[in-house]
Records
---
Amino acid sequence: MRIALSVNGERREADVWPGESLLTALRDRLGLSGSKNACEQGECGSCSVLLDGTLVCACLVLAAQADGHEVVTVEGLAGDDGLHPVQEAFVEAGAVQCGFCTPGFVVAAADLLRRNPDPSDDEIREALSGNLCRCTGYQKILTAVRLAAAR
Amino acid sequence: MSAPAGTRRVLPRGRAEAVPRRHDAVPKVAGRFLFASDLEMAGMLWGKTVRSPYAHARLLAVDPSEALRLPGVHAVLTHADVPGRKTYGLEIPDQPVLAIDRVRYVGEPVALVAAEEPEQARRAAAAVRVEYEPLEPVVDPERATEMPSLHPPGIAAGRGFRHDPRPNVLRTIVIRRGDPDAEGDVSVRGVYEIGQQDQAFLGPEAGLAVPDGEGGVDIHVATQWLHVDRDQVAPCLGLPPEMVRMHLAGVGGAFGGREDLSVQIHAALLALRTNRPVKMVYGREESFVGHVHRHPARIWAEHRATRAGRLVAVRVRILLDGGAYASSSTAVLSNACSFAAGPYAVENALIEGTVVYTNNPPCGAMRGFGAVQACVAAEAQMDQLAAALDIDPVELRLLNALEPGDALPTGQVVTGSLPTREVIRRAAAIPVPEPEELPRESIRLPGGAGNTTRGEGVRRGVGFAVGFKNLCYSEGFDDSCAARVRLHPDGSAEVDCAAAEVGQGVTDVILQVAREELGTDEVVLPDGSTARVGSAGSASASRTTWMAAGAVQLACRAALEERARRGGGEVEVERVYRHPRTFLLDPETGQVRGDRAHVAFAVAAMRAVVEVDVELGLSRVVWIGTAQDVGYALNRQAVEGQIEGGTAQGLGLALMEELRTREGAILNASFTDYLIPTFLDVPPIVSELVEVPEPDAPYGLKGVGEPPTVVSTAAILSALRDATGRELTRVPVRPDDIVGL
């Protein structure tokens, strides 16, 4: 089936099969490999994207459900004038190691700060507890989100 | 002229202002960094592996005809299609590329398919008809030595190991020192069990094999060691090594789980057969069965000491379940035995270890590599001994601390840096936070957002442990790292080193060293490839920073000398760095031959605070304070990142991470069922770096990746014992172990 959607502000079309996830459509049909596939069960948050402004795991949304809707991926987070403040802070705080979880984290953290510009540590931990990281132990991610909030 | 040999040049510290940001961080946060699973190429096919559903069975027949008739399918391969050697392995080539006449674990590769679309490949794999005759699986490691052999007897013979003719024994080690029967005033005993942990890296196994049209192949893959991959892949493909070029693709974490081959040979076989690029990517479930795990262990220990607390004798027996294939099991056992007594000086010891083949999932390298299991037992024993003697646990450890000049149970005298007492003192001196008042937010209580308690039934516990591990490969492994440096007339430079960037930041180390040594910021580092430079060795064993820094330093200095000799112009040199030589342990006595079996050591001490809801058995780690012996920290932020991440993995083993198996089959091969620590599980971690330069290492540095993982499981376990008053001899600790149902 053919779907049409807005991805990072651009109108895109794709041929997908009915059971295909939005994640597969983004990665394999639309060439946007920033969203990662690490579990395909909605457990790790590596595929976090915004669907009409709501944070979702792209692996749990059918591509067909996104037909006619707006999707923002990690690739669409940065503006023309450089990285998103959350991305800047991740770089600066050393919150990136292997980086496989990073796209999902920065999308989720940007969503958190949009909803709650001054979160407490507990609020950061809870909001990002759906994103798994195996490298950092989360401490430098916490530092990064605090840093981004402070700016 | 470069600095004369032996002069220690001091690198600029890795503070934010002194060291450039991680060079791959911007592409990673922007979603532009390409991981192995992101690779694609025009005309690419998708490969898929057909795997055994049986832990142990005869393989009677594989019928690809139905799969071959499905749309989009280009090839179905079996062992008959492997043109070269039919088996491979890191130490012992005992693992079939594709099962030949027998399968030995659930998930063993049996056949391969390649198709136009991933979904077609998946359906084709399901359509391959395989006929098995199930056999009784060997699943209990304690009974493995009484069961029929799973591999030809003597498969590990000729390697200088102790002779042990029992069936399914992969290696046995006996370390005997002094008089192991020496009696003390007190004796404590325990039996410990360590569950099977998974590396659970986020980026699944993936690779892209591209035929070169001349019979050779380029393999882009997420791995820890390109050259040893090539040396295993090429013979199986029946190709000379130069026709198999391995290139590092973006690696989404490793932790030991990418030391063994996954998709490398399979993707290459399909690519060479179809003459098309072939991509393979594992899903999460396949990843859990598609790589080796941390060895489950049973450890029997007895510690004897004087009334004053001095260790008199340590007696330990270790049994590791190696699973179906050898992988690096013989070296893991060596480590477990070497560190069975912990970083403590003891004159008398008997340490007996065996690793066996079973039909359980294959085990191999995981961060900590045998020392994790040993530490759980050794530190529990030290806590028990402290309690029996009524001595403060920290004081007991200080009293027995192993320091330079002391000997390990193997007789190896510590000659390098090992500030055990300093590390213990520094960790113990970090102020422990006061208990937090009630009432408080539920996520700051055991049970978290589940809102299971308001504080009733919650007890606090404080634990302490010391972890101890070797740095670099051991026991005579002829380890090396190559680096190639090109100096251009304009003053810029290009450095090649195949050390695998797996997230730990080795590429930043290489750039930092090259810029310092060459005195220029204009240094570029292409991605690692077997086609560009010699072997760097493995990104493992807390060796990579040491070896890569050593090689790059050597090559840079040689390049500068060469340029000075020539008076300028274009210069290109390649140099191979080696650390001090090591020797295999004596197979009869377990005593060191030559001066060392291990190159060097590192120690970490940790205090952990936990809260336990003893009514529900739920636990929460509240705080961790740790001090680690790091030699010299090239990049403080990166070192802290290793400590924090390594601690989190040890926390996982203490509280939640275990692959559960039934008749050899993994029951929880998903992130829904195999839990790794989340943001809510990992507490604030305060880390202190103890810097006593390692004399044998470049800049005095030490590897830092493994000690935090070694120590944290034991430290958290110690805190849980303190909170509950229970022995808690098994990790991960389950709620039932705490409530005692």
---
Amino acid sequence: MLFAKPLATLISQLEKLPGVGPKSAQRLAYHILGQPEEDVRRLADAIRDARDRMTLCERCQGFSEASICAICSDPKRDPSLICVVAEAKDVTAIERMNEFRGTYHVLHGVLSPMDGVGPERLKIRELLARLESGSVAEVILATNPTVEGDATALYLAQLLRPIGVKVTRLAHGMPIGGDLDFADQATLLSAFEYRREI
Amino acid sequence: MFLESFRRCGEAIRFETLRLRQFRNYSNLEVEFGEELNLLIGPNAQGKSNLLEAISVISTTRSFRGAKDKAMIQVGAESSSIAANLGDSEIGITIPKTGRRFATIGESQLPRIQDLLGRAPTIAFASVDLELIVGEPSWRRRFVDLEISQFSAKYLRSFSEYKRSLEHRNALLKRVRDGSEQARNLEVWDKKLSLSGATLREMRSGYLSELSVLANTRHMQLAGDNERLSLQYQLNDDAVTANDLIAELERKRPNDIVIGATTCGPHRDDIEILVDGKSAFSFASQGQSRTAVLAIKLAQMDYWTTREGRVPALLLDDIFSDLDVTRRQHVLEVSRELGQVFVTATDLAAVDSYLSDNSKIFYISNGTVRAA
Ligand SMILES: [Zn+2]
């Protein structure tokens, strides 16, 4: 056997993390073994603690310590505006912009039949439940402009339109300060397609 | 096509220098090419076609021989790289054994490998191109896909969207068949497929109808006035618009679910090549096929020159020496008027004196290149 059993177990667990291949899993495992015992215990505790104490917000399905998250319970946020994102990390990206004052809905994925992901695997039922009250004015679809992100937006638009809620999709275009010559052509193309009058 | 206005217009593409690192049998090579004809002389399997292949890879991101990435990396090396100086810019591509390929222009890395397309267009003519006549329909689709992708970002995007949506739809058909998803979940994939699929069909048939006219003119020059050549795009079904295609996908759905694959759409289309009104696939002799392919290649050059305002470099591999003297002369006259040409041959004696007098000659043996 190449690795002693406890080390092999650690490596195989680390390998399951996104973006970690066999080589980096080994590197991380050896790094962890070389750390003071106290540091390793703190890391293990932090992982277990976060997993134990964080739950999904009942409303937006984002990660939260309470049953309703800080954004959903903030009286200054507009609950009639829902921005639908694929992953929890997308909320962080939009929040950093510090401009959007509505609320979110996290799908926890996008439609991807190749990976066995259909609508029932996403938090779509929960989104429909939020719309039942009739107080939502607009749903902004902010999934990525990939084939899967677009298909998910299309699916949701078809589902939501009959309810009578306004459905919008984020525009895609040039990054600000982007250089035309170096812009990837798909981005440039979509910047043209979504151009507007000034 | 919005993006055309951004492209540089005008002259012929010139590969001034080519640098190879760990590409096939070249560990480290730098060659300075001539402006017009470049003659690569050497026995077989010494690396002359590898040079043409390197040019085709940096031009189209793919090998004209259809080789896989791994095959192009030198044995024992971790990656392979190709760089070309085009006079006003320097482009490069790196192909690693594992991980993603990347492309550069000057010092900057391009956002995606496809952004290299169209910066240094080339037309290759090699024996594998005979598949255009005698091969499976997939060869002919690959031919139009590669070509249109070089000058249209819109096509390239529709092409990659279509391919991916098709994989998803086929996966979903199987999931519906085994009961793990409902058939109505196919709707959104039908819609995605029909939008990109209709664009592919429209642009393919538009390109081919223009190419057909140009190819016929070239063919008459090569084969005489009475042998007409035509290329016709052949739909696998009757769907022309996106709405037609959606309806067709819905109609085929029950059957598609049973077999677990999508049975209509542009991935099933073909190009019919007719010589004198007869299918070249069924009736053309080897000589006729060779002439037809040559006419199509020259027509591709004409299309670039007249429609895109740019002259691709012409890469002529082994098949060229199989042509008779008149056809060879013809190609060389055409290409000399047009731009830069690269020709491989086993020995100088096999090449017309006309050619050797006007070329920069390189002798290639065992991975070394010596300019004469
Ligand atoms: Zn919440």
---
Amino acid sequence: MRIIQYREALREAMSEEMRRDSNILLMGEEVAEYNGAYKVSQGMLDEFGEKRVIDTPIAELGFAGIGVGIAMNGLRPIVEFMTFNFSLVAIDQIINSAAKLYQMSGGQFNIPIVFRGPTGSAGQLGAQHSQAFENWYANCPGLKVVVPSNPYDAKGLLKTAIRDNDPVIFMESEQMYGDKGEVPEEEYLIPIGKADIKKSGTDITIVSFGKIMKVALSAAAELEKENISAEVIDLRSVRPIDYNTVIKSVKKTNRLIILEEAWPLASISTEISYMVQKNAFDYLDAPIRRITTADTPLGYAPTFVAAFLPSIEKVVRIAKEITYA
Amino acid sequence: MANSFYLYQNPARLDVKHSFSKLNLKLCSIPKFISFAVLVKMAKNNFTKENYLGWYEQMLLMRRFEEKTAQLYGQQKIKGFCHLYIGQEAVVAGTMSAIRKDDKIITAYRDHAHALACGISADAVMAELFGKVTGCSKGKGGSMHLFSKEHNFFGGHGIVGGQIPLGAGIAMADQYKGNDNVTVCYFGDGAARQGALHETFNMAMLWKLPVIFVCENNGYAMGTSVERTTNVLDIFNIGNAYHMPSESVDGMQCETVHHAVNEAALRARNGDGPTLLEIRTYRYRGHSMSDPAKYRSKEEVEEYKKKDPIEQVKATIVSKKYADEKWFEEIENKIEKIVLESVDFAENSPFPDPSEIYTDVYAEPDYPFINE
Ligand SMILES: Cc1ncc(C[n+]2csc(CCOP(=O)(O)OP(=O)(O)O)c2C)c(N)n1
Ligand SMILES: [Mg+2]
């Protein structure tokens, strides 16, 4: 099969959808003439013109709100945040407008908008450029939150997100844009809200999403060498969460580790732990464990980066602890 | 929804394209070499009998509807935050007569008059205030969040200034579609202090969006007077910083508001972008139902009541002999009937079923909500 980069998969998704539906437009900082801060939208200005690929000033609150207004009036905007750290400037319009208008209007104004861009840390960028807000957005009813972990998923999920009639937060990663993977030439869509078992196994379930799926899969490969068979589940979206796939897996493996790039308090892993203890209490042979980031802002030095993030070693160590290996 | 109870027909918010008033219908067929300034001048002082009778009826409905609302609030039939528009009616009435039915309206939480003037029935608005399922937002919005897609009313919004970028976006979508609709985006003097306003003004000018920003300067943001929030007392000056055509307008008169909005709408339809109108007005009542308004003097309120917009229109109708006492009586009765019937309608409508809590949250019909 054809191999392309994650950023190319995203570009294909947007371009294919924009060719199909003239109501779709892309707006954000540096998306047009600069070809995207991370080159996701490379060439799109040339193909679609400045009416549909729109450079904005650095005014996240303003252009997020303008995007929502555009969506209220029948179009389907894609709003790119240079990174989701900067979406905090716009969060009022995401939470108070995009997520609320359909309900407040009694079902008259749905908001078909995609807010997309990179989430999470990307090396030594310091505290303000290294944050993951998946759980913040996932907390809010009215939104959907999608976090694809590879090029194939990125394309199929972004196409679905663009066609979705509700507001979708679509979170990518600076550290994944160059990742390569198999993406077929033919069109396909991936539904939002369905987890994907990326590797099946019998001894332990490992759940993650987004960039940290790489840690999960590498750890599973390490564990395989030690005869521990891990089932690895990619949530793909964290609102809604496909609890059933996780619970079903835990009923088989009886053990669960959740990996996540997020501060621990009120994280996605906390939520999944609750649901699993409630629905599979009798199946658990060990406490559910979560591996999050450190409960701190991320400092600049390389030693901090290593200490902050979930690591393969930590997953392997905890997996052995709870399988009593 | 019993829309038929709503008898009032907005006389001037016309369906016809390019017809902001009868006069302008004629002006639009005038060759282009007549300058914009001349056109605007020609449009002045040319209001018809229908304009005045329409304004009177429309404003009287707003006034009587809200007087009844205040009563019902006292009786605890209406709850929550509830903000009255009494005193400010000419701002909405003068706007509506200058724009078309396919134009879009968006405002803040002080939205009863805007909703009524867009043509939402008194029944549907009153039922919404009661939280009934027959309300214009199915009981999900309440006083602050009236909406009607059918009437191009894009809502009442509760975050001060939050509707400003939304209004620009609505206009941007119309620009994208290539029609010549305009969006009128209302906000208060307090909202003029929000960052969202500045970001939006900048982009609206940059992209020449067909939006009219109407700052309803009623002198106060809750208990804080304009003087206590800024050194720039002339709010319209904010627009000048973005080279946006901006002016202040007497908001106690329908005529001045109409002229200003008419000019702004011409500009927007012509592709020349946004306008900021600082419309100076006054609310007679407190900020919301719970505000006794102790931060201002009785004399100040009385000064403004002397310029009451409804009385001013009435005086013109009388002096120009557009109608007699009998007509005023008829209108008063007609509106009383509309208002009382809207209360009956609201009283007799059911609250939404509790199961409706899960509807209209997502457009997707089978969204898997978490139950426990
Ligand atoms: C972001 C935000 N901050 C504070 C409030 C509380 N609040 C509601 S109305 C209001 C005053 C707004 O005044 P103004 O914009 O002049 O409008 P007016 O009430 O006079 O129509 C305040 C502070 C709010 N709703 N939203
Ligand atoms: Mg005010």
